[in-house]
Amino acid sequence: MERGELLDCAVIMIMDSAACVDLKLRHGRVRKFVTILESAYYDNPYHNFCHAVDVTQCTFYMLHTIGLFNKNGPRRSSLRSPADTSFPVRSILRPIDAVALVVASMCHDLGHPGLNNAFMVRAHTQLAELYNDQSVLENFHAACFSMIMSYFFTDFVIPHQNGHPSSSSSFDYEEFRRIAVHAILATDMARHFEFIGKCKAQYERFMSGSNLPLTAQQHEAERAQLAASILKCADISNIVRPFNISQRWTQRLNREITLQGNIEESLGLSRSIVVDSDNIPTSQIAFYESCGRPLFNAVADLVPELRFMPEQLENNIRNWGFIKSNQKVPEVPYGLKHSSTFDLSASTRAGSTDSAPDFLPKRSMGSLLTPSIVPYSASMTTT
Fold first, then answer.
1. If 5 and its partner were Cys, which of 1, 114, 193, 230 is the partner (CB 3.0–4.6 Å)?
2. 242, 231 Cβ separation under 8 angstroms
């Protein structure tokens, strides 16, 4: 999609989610808000505005699939019909969570520099020092989210009277922000397995009924965990997309990792991750099996309607296995009904120049959203 089409998609998803809580938003103002979000994303090969919309679309689809939009919001006939068996999920999540998760998905990588947390810490960046080397980027994204919300979003979501928010508004901004921030912070891959453990523990509680009936405090904790599970799955959903789409994201991520390695070497650091273009299928299978499979299976146990996600994950593992054994993509990749017309012969190679779409030049958000990521002790020369 082109930039304008991505903006349109984002506007549609935000307005649809807002309808769940009877928020009457004006299209023009929502588009202006989305344009502000877009301006805070850099043109990285992977962590860019296209990724933000992609993650939001996955979140949006999952929320529709579990029926969270049914009560007040619009439903699209092309989406999966929700089952009637997800008692824990559909009774704990609330319509406002749809708004929080859709907007949080759009904001979850705001200002991402195309460098990972490990780099931020190793290079002793100001941002790493600011957050004490803990979930550096996730804390930064959450802070950007909160600042943009307070400056722009609340102006047209919460009615104001005499310069102050109206108490008659049914939209609870603090509740919205709490759920969104919790979900954004959960996307830290360094805490991936800790998070999976929490998913499994939640499933065990639901199955045993040991925590029912829920106290108000328990309800909020379970609700925040479920919401975070949705965004976390959406954040790495490219591995459960149809293979011809999934593979394109692999290419972009490898390109971004390679660029980070180049920066590391320019600073006198060793490459933290080496992309071996001859063994990409092996590395992909390892990630799918060690990180993807446990997460998507744990979440599908909690939400049976999402079982199609781990099923596609297994199809993609088979596809990578086929490429590893045969040095070519299967004529009809597992999980697809038709032949794939996409040529993978060079696209999985890290050195490919086919990066993300070239969006319009970024408009500066000023120092508010772009603190220096350059190490104190290093001087960098751009070419």
1. 1
2. no
